[in-house]
Amino acid sequence: MPIKTAIPRKTFINKNQFPSPGSEDEKKLFNESQRKFVEQFEQVFPDRLAPRTVVIVPSLTLDHDMLSKIKGIVHYEERLLCLLMLLRMPLTRVVYVSSMPIADVIIDYYIHLLPGITGHHARKRLTQLNCFDASSKSLTQKILERPRLIDSIRQYIPDPASAHLTCFNITPLEKTLAVQLGIPLFGTDPDMFYEGSKSGSRKNFRISGVKLPEGYEDLYTTEDIARSLAGLKRSNPTLRKAVVKMNEGFSGDGNAIYTYPVLDMNEQLDNNIKESLLQHIKPVAEDVDGTLFFEKFREMGGVVEEFLEGEMKTSPSVQVVINPNKHIAIVSTHDQLLEGDDGQVYVGAVFPADPVYSIEIATAGKKIAQTLADKGVIGRFAIDFVSVKQTDSNWKHYAIEINLRKGGTTHPLFMLKFLTDGSYDADTGEFITASGSRRYYFASDNVVSDKYIGLTPYNLIDIAMFHSLSYDGTTQEGVVFHLLGALSEFGKFGVVCIGSSPERAKKFYDNVIEVLDHECC
Q1: Is the C-alpha dihedral spanning 446, 447, 450, 452 positive or negative?
Q2: Which is higher by pLDDT, 8 or 373?
Q3: Same domain? 296 vs 344
Q4: I need a labelling partner for 106 at 20 to 30 A (CA). Which of 2, 52, 291, 411 fits?
Q5: pTM
Q6: Residues 123 and 200 in one domain
Q7: Average of pLDDT values for 408-415?
Q8: Are residues 200 and 339 in the same domain?
Q9: Among 235-239, 261-265, 442-446, which is the least confidently predicted range?
């Protein structure tokens, strides 16, 4: 007789029971959940002993073709491992979802940093889940394609009323995931994406009364770009360069620099620029030619604006949190470290920003944040500026863009805040620890060298221990590493160097480079 096999019923929640992505029913469920989040924020967030669950999905849900140009991009999911510091609250559970398994040595490295909590206690409250999928799809898309994984995440949420989802950036995919998990999302409704796009940013700067570069927004075609470039040149005949930016960019890789050739300033200027556009534009992203850049620009739209010149020029940013109750907090200012031929590629940051202007940019940032709060924006985001020195003590600040997401300055600040239990005072431009001391850091996401290829996270941690390149909780100074998963294959990692002065923070960084170059020679 043939053997009969009982077919068990499905043990996971069928995705068909959820409303269609983008539908009115999904929006209704999402909005109801977000309204309840206000109560959770007011009652649960302030109490370090309140039970809660934080689901962390560090998905970079951005343009696939542009992200694929960044080496080791899948390992950027590790940047939100800084949120493991939430485990210092003894009744907090963390569910961390990633594309691929994260090595135990990396998790142990973060757990070891937790102040006042044993590793065993923290480990019991940490759940790691992953997709076993190293493809270039966004992490959130991978999760949505796996209903059993969604069901697993739900099983680790004991009380949805005290849980929330946090992500790197928020798109309709993250909105759908929040609805399917049945928990609120700490961030801005993706229906408001335009407010943080390059075009929307420029409009919000004008509403806020904040200075911005001369330029044009809501562009899509090469004709739009050429017409805008011509308009800038007519307004300022001495202009040498302009920046063309896609509405959706990441670390400057959605930008291109246009260098004006010698042109006759006549009625044919628009057409002459259009015909020679490919010859004189240079995308910032490696391996992206003009043809691909314009193709992506047509899909996303974007802006054209003047390239700001100056003998002394910096790129500060202001990090803001708008809480669900609409309270605005300026949580940091940074001087961003930019590289590339025209200083368009983000590689790191110095914290806080220069005291000469940190209070000024914080004030401008708060004006912009108020405009966004009035429109319904919530969550953590950054506003980037370009500051040009006029005299010894006078700077002119231009708002450049709003990034309605976490960014390169998010995880270093989280680490400093969690490790020292301190906070940033926007009125003084200083970060003060719980013990009343000032702290500073020098951070980079892009410490990279071919000499480091082949080093494992074990090797780097061993080298750091031997050469005293670690964070010391007693002095609240030292070095914290991140992006360790990218080290062996790409020779790339990140570092946050915390010191009692800007000079000491930079010295820690210099020591890291000196030691690694010696060890890997």
Answers
A1: negative
A2: 373
A3: no
A4: 52
A5: 0.90
A6: no
A7: 91
A8: yes
A9: 261-265
What are the phi and psi torsion angles at 111 (to 5°)? -60, -35
pLDDT higher than 80, residue 421: yes
In a domain, 4, yes or no: no
b/e sequence 292-322, b meaning 16+ C-beta within 10 Å: ebbebbeebbbbbbbbbeeeeebbbbbbbbb
Q: Is residue 426 part of a domain?
A: no
What is the distance between the alpha carbons of residues 468 and 412, in angstroms, rounded to a whole number? Answer: 20
Four-residue CA torsion sign, 121, 126, 127, 133: negative
Are 279 and 407 in the same domain? no
Q: What is the pLDDT of residues 264-297, one digit of tens each?
A: 887 789 999 998 899 999 998 777 888 888 998 9
pLDDT > 60? residue 10: no
Task: Tell me which DSSP letter residue 418 carries.
Answer: H
Residues in the chain, total: 521
238 lies in the same domain as 176: no
Report whether pLDDT(517) > 70.
yes
Rounded to whole angstroms, the Cα distance separating 373 from 4 reads 62
Choosing from 252, 281, 306, the residue where a domain stops is 306
Assess whether pLDDT exceeds 80 at residue 512: yes
Q: SS3 for 322?
A: strand
Q: What is the 3-state secondary structure (H, E, C) of 468-509?
A: CCCCECCCCEEEEEECHHHHHHHCEEEEEEEECCHHHHHHHH
Longest dimension (CA), the chain: 94
Structural domain of 273:
214-306
- What are the CA-CA distances from residue 83 to residues 366, 447, 448, 516 (Å)? 25, 22, 24, 27
293 and 317 together in one domain = no
For residue 180, pLDDT beyond 70? yes
Give domain status of residue 378, yes or no: yes
User: Has residue 6 been placed in a domain?
Assistant: no
Could you give the CA distance from residue 136 to residue 67 in angstroms, rounded to a whole number?
8
Task: Say yes or no: 301 and 345 in one domain.
Answer: no
Is the pLDDT confidence value at 1 over 60? Answer: no
Q: Which residue has the higher pLDDT, 15 or 22?
A: 22
Do 248 and 102 reside in the same domain of the chain? no
pLDDT tens per residue, range 459-474: 999 999 999 999 999 9
Q: Which residues of 138-172 are buried (b: 16+ CB within 10 A; e: fewer)?
A: bbbbbbbebbebbbebbeebeebebbbbbbbbbbb
Residue with tokens 């998010």, as numbered in its chain: 410
Per-residue exposure over 396-434, b if at least 16 CB sit within 10 Å of its own CB, e if not: ebbbbbbbbbbbbbbbbbbbbbbbbebbbebeebbbebe
Q: Which two tokens stand for residue 471?
A: 């964070």
> Domains in the chain: how many in total?
4
DSSP secondary structure string for all residues of 150-194? HHHHHHT-S-GGGEEEEESB--HHHHHHHHHHTS-BSS--GGGGG
The CATH number linked to 316 is 3.30.470.20
pLDDT at site 262: 86
